Every structure is written in C-alpha cells, then in structure tokens.
Amino acid sequence: MKIEGVDVRKISKEFGTPLYAYSMKTLRCSIEEIKKLSPVTRYAMKA
C-alpha cells in the first residue's frame, strides 16, 4: 500500500505504529476550499 507514492511499510518502520499519515494534496485542496469561505483563519482555544 502506498500513500502519495510512499510505501506505508517504509513509513511504519521509520516512525512506528500506529501512526497517522495524511495526503498533502488532499490537505491543500481542503485548505483552499476553506479559504473560499473565509480568507481569515481563526483558531479556537480552550482555557
């Protein structure tokens, strides 16, 4: 199995398991969609 051309076994050997691997392409597309809704990014913080 590969994620964006990177073998998942290679990643798991380097970083261990369990791990989360995200697609940079998907993240960038999602960010662009969010920017269309609001150009200002805000973060929620809990005291």
From TrEMBL:
Signal peptide span: none
InterPro entries linked to this entry: Ala_racemase/Decarboxylase_C, PLP-binding_barrel
Name of the protein in question: Orn/DAP/Arg decarboxylase 2 N-terminal domain-containing protein
Gene Ontology MF term list: catalytic activity
